[in-house]
Amino acid sequence: MPPGARQVSLGGLGADSAPGAASTLESRCEELRLAMVRLLNDSGGIASAIRDNGSIAMPGMDDSIDPLGPPLSVRGLSELFTGLSAGGRVNTVFAYVGGARLQTVNPDAQADLQAFFGAVQRFNSYCQQAVLDDALGVALQAPHLPPIVDRIIAGAAHFSAFFEAVAIARPAFTAKPARALSASEQSRISECYQRYHLMATDRMLAPDDLAGLLPRGRSARIGIEMTWSPHAGEQYINGVYFPAEQAQAVMAGAATAETSALVAAV
Fold first, then answer.
1. Which residues touch 148 (CB under 8 Å, ≥6 apart)?
2. Beta strands in 99-210 (DSSP E)
3. CB of 230 within 8 A of CB of 91?
């Protein structure tokens, strides 16, 4: 995370504070896709351990809780939202694109990303606490855990496809003037979602639940990258960059959810 940007963690979650290294939108988007594929495979391995009453590796643990991992490492991912341009540091926001002519831009992709990273970090904290309590095997067999792991698998599959789709659509959106997606590009985007969703169902504990566990933007399959210059009020929430206005909306939504949970508990 760059100096000067505020870091916010929801639900006690942490985030990486390393400065950005990747310098181009293309390379950062591809690194995010590869990270999602890794999370898809690693969470699938955890699902297998749960199914087989086995255990999971927890390398590098000490006596403290580190939400960035293990068992699912998200270390360094926050830096992939920051790069350098000729004018200095720039930050990346991903959005869903929809509408008949792909003219509707929905910023919920960034909010879906932080929710996904938050779920991963909560799971990491849960597993690490179980190790500290010498009860990891019992914790992995808790009845509430399978849908949590399946939701992580579904999210990793969704964003693996999303970042691949962003790369497929990029030539159309960056053309001057911008052009419509070709039939071939649309077909490739549909195919990549089908491929990753199949990978998810192959790994999930309850594969029939996939549709209900995908992020809320699951119907918007085309994405776009947008860049923001550094400004007052920008924040990293669960390791994901947000410009000031969007950060305020995410934090307000989190506060509303916490209030609702408190009322429900009374």
1. 119, 123
2. 104-106
3. yes
Structural domain boundaries in the chain? 6-254
- Would you tell me how many other CB atoms lie within 10 Å of the CB of residue 129? 13
Query: CA-CA-CA-CA torsion for 96, 198, 143, 41, nearest 10 degrees?
Result: -80
Count CB atoms within 10 A of the CB of residue 140.
20
Q: What are the residue ranges in the chain where pLDDT is below 50?
A: 1-23, 255-266
- Is 239 within 8 Å of 114 (Cβ atoms)? yes
Helix and strand counts by DSSP (H, E) for the chain: 7, 7
Q: Which residue carries 């940007």 as its tokens?
A: 5
What are 118-163's pLDDT values in tens digits?
Answer: 999 999 999 999 999 999 999 999 999 999 999 999 999 999 999 9
- With H, G, I as helix, E, B as strand and everything else as coil, classify residue 1: coil
